[in-house]
Amino acid sequence: MTLGLIVAFAVFFSDQLSKWFVQGYFDNIHSPQAFGSFFNLVEAWNTGVSFSMFNDGGILGMVVLSLFAIGVIVFLLMWLKKEDDKVVQLSLGFIIGGALGNVVDRIRFGAVYDFLDFYYNNWHWPAFNLADAFICTGAFIIILHGMIKAKSNIKKEGEK
To answer: Which of 15, 27, 113, 122 could make an SS bond with 101 (beta carbons 3.0 to 4.6 A apart)?
Structure first.
């Protein structure tokens, strides 16, 4: 459990620090900044969930989404407490820290602060932040790890 909590704290801290830094940057420069031909630094406030879905819920939406995220965090902490696998602990830490970072934004600002804008030609991926990246990475690792473990178990069963 300790590994997951350390990772969650590191993810939460890096997410909040990056948001603070980028917000400070935009205090002086008030327009998106292009870095190369595929990335912009932008300011976007997401009042919805992933990729701005359900973005029109107002204050009730913010409260409901915050409570839901807190419930998910509690569930993941209970899973982390029982989890022995270090890869899963690391992944749960990614998800918990990222979710907590976005919940703090939602409570402080009423929305999640997004600033990473990747694009190709005129097609833009929805803006996101480090918390979102860690949540997706943690979920991907858990799924991949589960698939590898399941395949290994099937292989072992076939050898019997």
So the answer is: 15
